[in-house]
Amino acid sequence: MIDVITYPSDEAELKISAIAKRRPGADPALEARVLEIIGAVKSEGDAAVLRYTRRFDAPGLEEGRLRVSDEEIDAACGEVDSDFVSIIRTAIRNIEDFHKQQIRHSHFMTKPDGTFLGQIVRPVRAAGIYIPGGQGGETPLISSVLMNTIPARLAGVPDIAMVTPPRNDGSINPYLLTAAREAGVNRIYRAGSAWGIAALAYGTKSIQPVDVIVGPGNIYVALAKKLLSGEVGIDMIAGPSEVLVLADSSANADYIAADLLSQAEHDSMASAICITTEESLAGDISLSVSRQLTSLPRGETAAASIERYGAVFIVQSVDAAFGLANRIAPEHLELHIKDPLPWLGRIENAGAVFIGDYTPEPVGDYFAGPNHVLPTAGTARFASALGVDDFIKKTNVIAYSRAAFDRDARSIIRLAELEGLMAHAESVRIRVKK
Predict the structure, then answer these.
(1) Domain chopping of the chain, boundaries
(2) Which of 102, 240, 253, 421 would you label with 37, given CA atoms 20 to 30 Å apart?
(3) Domain 28-102+112-234 sits in which CATH superfamily?
(4) Catalytic residue among 182, 331, 334, 361
(5) What pLDDT, on the 0 to 100 scale, is given for residue 156?
């Protein structure tokens, strides 16, 4: 049974605190292990990547087979069914249509005094996409390939590399390879975990380095990205998945229970919360969660998540519900309330918002178009969804005319002197007309 808790209360604070503590923490021993892996890849290159891959994923992987060949990808595309390809292409169009609105362009301006200002917008040279193995390669994370690759391609990145753990026999799931080709990945490697991330960051004989690394993964992947941030750009340090549903008397308890479980099945650390104004609805949701759990293939995982990090909070008003939601700052926020649109302005902190009975979170995960790589663990207070901006760099351009320089020189000198940077001041003063 999912906990039904009145908010505000001491019990509610304890549950909220437990949920908040799911933030990715620093385990010194684990971090040291990841640093060791990174160091090995940096110094040994392919040899280290092969060693770790053989140890943890594909014992018989041969030297020289880190990169997936074009022939293997061709064969994979021939193995998948045409219905899958049609679905993938529709999803790609939806994701492209949404992300095209994010494309930036260089811009410039001139002033009457001859000043010329602007910003050059360019894509990074190369981007790396990390895709987890997914149950030994048997549950390929197709949606992650699309969501991470398409914004990079639309940004204009000319070289998109993907790393993913191979299956035990060294192969990659054909659905994953097909999705990568359809989305626009240029090169694919058999390399997972922290060694795959390190190989993308530093490069090896087989794996050319990249400038930005994005994509989900386990704690080893998250720590590797964290430790290599600065060496390369990263998207975010993702924590366990989470959903928060706001519901009033118009809501359907079975729909909400199903949506809570759709996140709980991800991971025993996932969080599934409902905030409602209706005590009777809270009870119905709790019963429905218990009933639906019995038929879930991943029921054990979902049950652990619901028990530790699930809750239905009962509040006094819809306004109080939004206040609590903003405090939690969820990755996914669903609105199951009678008239949701007037309340959108009340949302301050959320990775993505799903409105109405027929927009469950999986609609966004797979198909609608907005990106499903979202801030977790309360970071929606300051972070945003993955997008085109994560794959571009912006260079400011400044050109002053003599007239503009003479007008501003005294002010610049004063500011430099106040900061104690006399050489700054002199570089301006030496140009001032005597």
Answers:
(1) 4-23+239-368, 28-102+112-234, 400-429
(2) 240
(3) Nitrogenase molybdenum iron protein domain (3.40.50.1980)
(4) 331
(5) 98
Positions of the chain with pLDDT lower than 70, given as ranges: 24-26, 434
pLDDT of residue 25: 64
Examine the residue annotation and report whether 71 is marked as an active-site residue of this protein. no
* Cα separation, 334 vs 281, whole angstroms: 16
Supply the pLDDT for residue 136: 77
Q: What is the CATH number of domain 4-23+239-368?
A: 3.40.50.1980
Measured CA to CA, the distance from residue 365 to residue 368 in angstroms comes to 8
User: What is the reported pLDDT for 138?
Assistant: 82
Is the Cβ–Cβ distance between 183 and 145 less than 8 Å?
yes
Known active-site residue 63:
no
Sheet of 107-110: strands edge to edge? 107-110, 116-123, 392-399
pTM: 0.94
Q: What is the C-alpha separation between 318 and 344, in angstroms, rounded? A: 12
**Topology agreement, domain 4-23+239-368 and domain 28-102+112-234:** yes
Dihedral pair phi/psi, residue 76, rounded to 5°:
-60, -45
Tell me the pLDDT tens digit for each residue of 369-394.
Answer: 999 999 999 999 999 999 999 999 99
DSSP string, 264-308: HTT-TT-EEEEEES-HHHHHHHHHHHHHHHTT-TTHHHHHHHHHH
| Closest residue by Cα to residue 137 from 202, 76, 83, 208 | 76
Could you please report the per-residue DSSP string of 324-358? HHHHH--SEEEEESSS-GGGGGG--S-SEEEESTT
User: Catalytic residue among 332, 336, 361, 372, which?
Assistant: 332
Burial of 74 (0-12, 13-18, 19+ CB in 10 A): exposed
- Residue 371 in contact with residue 387, Cβ under 8 Å? yes
| The two three-digit tokens of residue 253, written as one number | 């308890």
**What pLDDT sits at residue 22?**
82
Q: Which amino acid is at 238?
A: A
d(CA 340, CA 155): 33
